[in-house]
Amino acid sequence: MVSSLPEMWESERDQRGAAYHEAGHAVVAWALGLVVRRVEIAVDSDDAKGAAEIEDDPTLDLLDRLAICAAGREAQKLFDAPTHDGAGWGDYGKMVVLLANREEKRQIEWMHRGHKRAFDLISLHRGKIDRLAKTVIEKKRVEADEIAALLAD
């Protein structure tokens, strides 16, 4: 069966959104000194599903950990790269877990601060995010060595 044109556009939109989302996570993590091992999209044949395998450093400052979580959605906004409405819910859940011991008002304040930190880092490294996202769109999966080369100045 041949896909209709609107379905093809939706697929391209979802892959683009996923690529910028994951590139946002990856570049913010990289900017904070973490190793990015892999970035991929179209996981399990779902065009909107992506993954970024990033080194975990539990000693990283809370604000920076929140920024990594928020970076996907912030990159999608900055690059006007939407996907489906459910994109980013897992990231939001990670933020809630990180802030579980704080009262709700403080959680919201910290989330806003995390988004601001992510936005600032994404704005600073906009070209790197664009370069990585375009490569991920083309290849669907990019490994650590190539990621490091793409993010080098």
In short:
The protein is mainly alpha-helical and 153 residues long.
Instruction: Please report the first level of CATH classification, the CATH class.
Output: Mainly Alpha
Named at the architecture level, the CATH assignment is: Up-down Bundle
The average pLDDT score comes to 92
Distance between the termini: 45 Å
* Topology pattern, helix = H, strand = E: HEEHHHHEH
Q: What fold name stands as the CATH topology? A: Methane Monooxygenase Hydroxylase, Chain G, domain 1
How many helices? The count is 6
Shape, per Cα inertia axes:
globular
**What is the count of distinct domains?**
1
Tell me what portion of residues adopts beta-strand conformation: 5-15%
CATH superfamily: Peptidase M41
Give your account of this protein's structure.
The protein is mostly helical and 153 residues long. It has a single domain (5-151), classed as Up-down Bundle (Methane Monooxygenase Hydroxylase, Chain G, domain 1), CATH 1.20.58. The chain has helices at 5-31, 62-78, 89-98, 104-124, 126-139, 144-151, and strands spanning 36-41, 50-54, 141-143. A three-stranded antiparallel beta sheet has the order 2-1-3. Helix 1 (5-31) crosses helix 5 (126-139) and helix 2 (62-78) packs antiparallel against helix 3. The longest helix is centred in the N-terminal third of the chain and has 27 residues, at 5-31. It is globular, with a radius of gyration of 15 Å. It starts with a helix and ends with a helix. The mean pLDDT is 92. This is Peptidase M41 domain-containing protein. InterPro entries: Peptidase_M41-like.
